[in-house]
User: Fold this.
Amino acid sequence: MKQITKFLMVLALVAVPVGFTSCDNEEEYHYYYNDLVTEAVRNYWYTYPSGADYYTTRDWFLYHYPSATAVELAKFMEAVNYGYIDNYNPKENDPLMAEVQMLTGEWAGDMTIYFDEKGKRMSQTFHANMKFFQYESSKNSLSGHGTEVDTADNGATQTLDFSWFVDKNGDIYIKYTKSGTIFRMDAKSSKKGFHLGYEKAKGYDTFYGYGVSTNTTDEFVIDLARQATSNGKGRMVKSRTATGKIAGEVFGKATLNDAADHKAKAVSGLRER
Assistant:
């Protein structure tokens, strides 16, 4: 009987550290899945054991983690060896970098947004002020962040944060931080694309066209003009046209600005994004 008792005591002592080890592993497991960035990194390497190119990697993250913030996107890209910047090495007179330089700065004008609500297609028009900033970590970055201030006819306002990037096709992606809604502006489409740059008839830079959401049914139509208050790095400028090598340049294939037609069909208001 004594031998049996001793044997059971030995088993109990051996089992104690095993139990503690099991708890530690379980805590690590739960910490991992409770952290969005860590989870995304693990799932990314599971999906792409040998990695993927920059655009595939970023698009994969935005698709699978639509609620992620711009900071979380930055941490994820850095963790998978791409960093917050694009690891982009532009050639001389590179068209993508020129497009980014044209986009950065302050734009203002009308925005009409379309959305579904209670089974109906709705639309609202308001004044939008959008500021696009290139990430300060690199002058060669094809991405950045921004702020948008919307003002309704009754004076109501809302301020939205967003991140943006230009892909290898010249398409512009805008992701609103709070809602996670992502809009794509098609550089190649003449009917539902965009115009970004100098507009000869007006004598200054304009930014108009369509944005179609990639993860909701929302769409927007913008009719914006460059503002003379600042450029992408916050310095004062004297005109509403870009300067330097990109002066007079135009990006996007849109040729018709039909924003006024959409404004006439919309009601005043501010849809939260």
In short: The longest helix spans residues 2-34.
